[in-house]
Amino acid sequence: MHRIGRALPSALSVVGSLILVLAGPLLQPAAAQATSAGQAPLSGAPEAGRNLSAYLLTAEPGDRVWELFGHNGVLIRDESTGFEGVYHYGLFDMYSDGFVPRFLRGEMMYMSGVSELTWFLASYGAANRRVWAQRLDLTPAQLGELRRLLDESVAPENRTYRYDYFRNNCSTRIRDILDQVLGGELSAANDTVRGGDDPVTWRTHTRRLTAPLTGDGLLGYLGIQLLLGPKGDEATTVWQEAWVPMRLRDQVGALSLHRGGGPGVSLEASRAVWSESDREPPPSRPPTRAPWFLLAGLLMAGLFWAAARSAAGGSRPARLPGALLGATWGLLTGLLGLLFVAVHWTDHEFMYWNQNVLIFSPLGLALSVLLPLAHLRSASGPWLRRLTGATLGLAAIAAILWLIPWTRQGNGDWLLLALPVCGTLWWVAWRGLPPDAVSGVAE
């Protein structure tokens, strides 16, 4: 297996290339070096689990984009045979046939496998990632059932599965198997929504876990916040939050089991750190980055204002900065707009109906032509004025939608960045550059 980025879309098209840059952080890591279990599946009978012990292993985030959300696995030890293996999920091979086209369609096929414990701990230790081990207090019958279900999941006919960013990733598959073994106690104990009037959403944890500015955190933050549509802002139950391995760790640690009407027994028999790290754990809440986005928007707006002033009646070299800025902004926003539209022909449903298409619209492609021409000619034409008015109007609609609680998408940062730029471009077209003499329009 290849340990590579969380998403590897195609360079076959412009849209595919954009997804490569922006969607990468949403996919789980290729957790690598998987082998088969090497033993026949066990039954769930009590005698089948008498010599077994089970641990939930949780690896905290690392530096790379594909490491930002953590990873987990279930360690099974069999004293009677000496078997020791970590069952885990989220394995993929970017070089397998059809991987790239399937990703572009949102049909990611990932795999499960078993790794040696020594490799598992060494790989995360080398990346300075802390690994937690929780011994699970299960009955022999439950241990046998757990081993049977894990073996079934890595059998050749079952090891490939349809991956989903949030609902069928490495952590949710372990969560579901544990819940089946526990007779639904894990799901029943976590069928609540945290946060009250400000509930936890799918976006909440993506913002929180991409908070570090070290490594690829900033890239992960920007890409995810651009691509997640309003579905990412739906409230999630505590059960659904277990798509994050560290949240599943906490849920397992908090669960009290009820056996035979007696007092509750903690599912977590013990907890220890098996691979230490000096890395700070992820923050408990997402950071506030709005001031930085606003500052970036104001700086870019200032550059466009200065470039327009320089181009108005200036020499040809003085007009080039504005032309380059206009082409870059227009091309970038236009391609993003195409991406937001194109995803509706895929199964990437968490990207559907993204209101960022109002902020970064396909109209940017026309701006990438008209803005440079206006700067090079030191003159603004009627089409540029209409176009900048339209882009500013669309951004204003996005701002209005954000102000309404039931239509709000978590894109306030991008509004703070784009609105100053859109407003300045409108000013450039109407006031910053003189009217095109050919149009006959006087300002």
SSE arrangement:
Layout: H1 14-22, E1 52-59, E2 71-78, E3 83-91, H2 99-105, E4 109-115, H3 117-126, E5 131-136, H4 140-154, E6 160-162, H5 170-181, H6 185-189, H7 202-209, H8 217-227, H9 245-254, E7 256-257, E8 265-266, E9 268-275, H10 290-311, H11 316-342, H12 356-359, H13 364-377, H14 382-403, H15 412-432
Antiparallel strand pairs: 1-2, 1-5, 2-3, 3-4, 4-6, 5-9, 7-8
Continuous helix count:
15
Assembly type of the chains comes to: single chain
List the uncertain runs. 1-18, 20-43, 437-443
**What's the helix-strand series?**
HEEEHEHEHEHHHHHEEEHHHHHH
Mean pLDDT: 87
- Secondary-structure-based class equals alpha+beta
Number of domains: 2
- How many β-strands, per DSSP? 9
Question: Can you describe this structure?
Answer:
It contains 15 helices and nine strands. With 443 residues, it is α+β, with helices and mostly antiparallel strands. The chain folds into two domains: 14-275, no CATH class; 290-432, no CATH class. The strands form two sheets. It has a seven-stranded antiparallel beta sheet, with helices on both faces. Helix 11 (316-342) packs antiparallel against helix 13 and helix 14 (382-403) runs antiparallel to helix 15.
